[in-house]
Amino acid sequence: MFHSSREPKAPAYMSDASRPRTNDSVRPLPGRIFSLRPSLKSVVWGGTDILHLKGLDFPEGTIGESWELSDIPGHRTVVVGGPDHGLTIAQLIEKYGEGLLGKRSVELFGMEMPLLVKIIDARQNLSVQVHPDEDLAQRVHGCHGKTEMWYVLKSEPEARIYAGLKEKITSDDFRRSVEDETLMEVVASSHPEPADVYFLPAGRVHAIGAGNLLVEIQQASDITYRVFDYGRGRELHVDRAIDAIDFDIILPDYRTAYDKSARIATIVDCPYFRVERRKIDASADLVFSGDSFTIAVCVEGRCIAETSGRMTALEPGRTILIPASIPSVRLLGHATLLTASIP
To answer: For all residues of the chain together, what is the average pLDDT?
Structure first.
């Protein structure tokens, strides 16, 4: 499979005949928060920043990715602690159904986890790539497309983020730039600062430059079309990429503007996910509609998440899954969280 943007289209709703049915009246609703054990990936381009962030001992090699919440085969995360210890996300969904996912998520995406969360530490430049939108991915691969976002945790002084095109070009222009290895001259780049946000709808060319540590929240898809790899010899997918790229959207700055001083800020709101940054100063309450699960990633500080008398610790680099059946969570401490849900 290809390793996997037009501004995102609304997700295709399933027909009544194909939509999975649930009967939560006979299922125990999950009344607890789930702590997750990430899947750490040792790769040559990774470093030790993820281990520092999480306060983990240093294994041999380097860690490039921590798959914080994933139900992608080969990269599945599991529950840590409690009666569901060791269960995968798919097994949680099988056990709790709509009580875990929420009505809105099930209506849009069925009985599957539609989001994927990673922490990425790039010590080398990662390949320049693009992802297909929902229509193209379904037509060609029979799976979901891939819209994603990056939240920068740390960036070295010379680090760059590559996102979007500098100017409007044709598909022929793009192909020529790949063939003569001048692609980086047409891809926009910027030096990121901590807490910068980059929204990457399917069809937007992008790459993580060396020296960046960031959180990635995306659709649960692993389809990537690689178009430039700095001469490292890996397969490119130029024809597929040209079919996927949106050549019409050109922005002066591909960073998302938001108030970094705000206690609560919506940093991405698209058809596939909504992400908010929340600053917890002593205490705060998260109140939920019941329509969607919520994923929370602690990016700074420490706090305790309390619901129904149960306490869950959130420390830097830790991710939790809050079921849709939980009406509210009390947060105690001083921390900055990213929360992701289905809009």
So the answer is: 91
The residue with greater pLDDT, 86 or 4, is 86
**Cα separation of 333 and 285, whole Å?**
12
Residue that is written with structure tokens 């470093």 in the block: 47
- Cα distances (Å, whole numbers) of residue 238 to 42, 49, 55, 120, 244: 27, 32, 40, 25, 10
Query: Which pairs count as long-range contacts for 278-282, CB under 8 Å and 24+ apart, including other chains?
Result: 278/336, 278/337, 278/338, 278/339, 279/335, 279/336, 280/331, 280/332, 280/333, 280/334, 280/335, 280/336, 280/337, 281/334, 282/332, 282/333, 282/334
pTM above 0.70, yes or no: yes
Q: With left for phi above 0 and alpha for psi between -120 and 50, is residue 185 left, alpha or beta?
A: alpha
Which are the contacts of 52, defined by CB distance < 8 A and separation ≥ 6? Answer: none
How would you class 312 by CB atoms within 10 Å of its CB: exposed for 0-12, middle for 13-18, buried for 19 or more? buried
Measured distance CA(7)–CA(140) in Å, rounded: 19
Q: Please say whether the beta carbons of 230 and 218 come within 8 A.
A: no
Cβ within 8 Å of residue 273, ≥6 positions away: 114, 115, 147, 149, 217, 219, 340, 341, 342, 343
**Average pLDDT estimate for 76-84:** 95
Residue among 319, 255, 300, 229 nearest 45 (CA):
229
User: What pLDDT, on the 0 to 100 scale, is given for residue 52?
Assistant: 93
What is the residue type of 304?
A: I
Average pLDDT over residues 148-165: 98
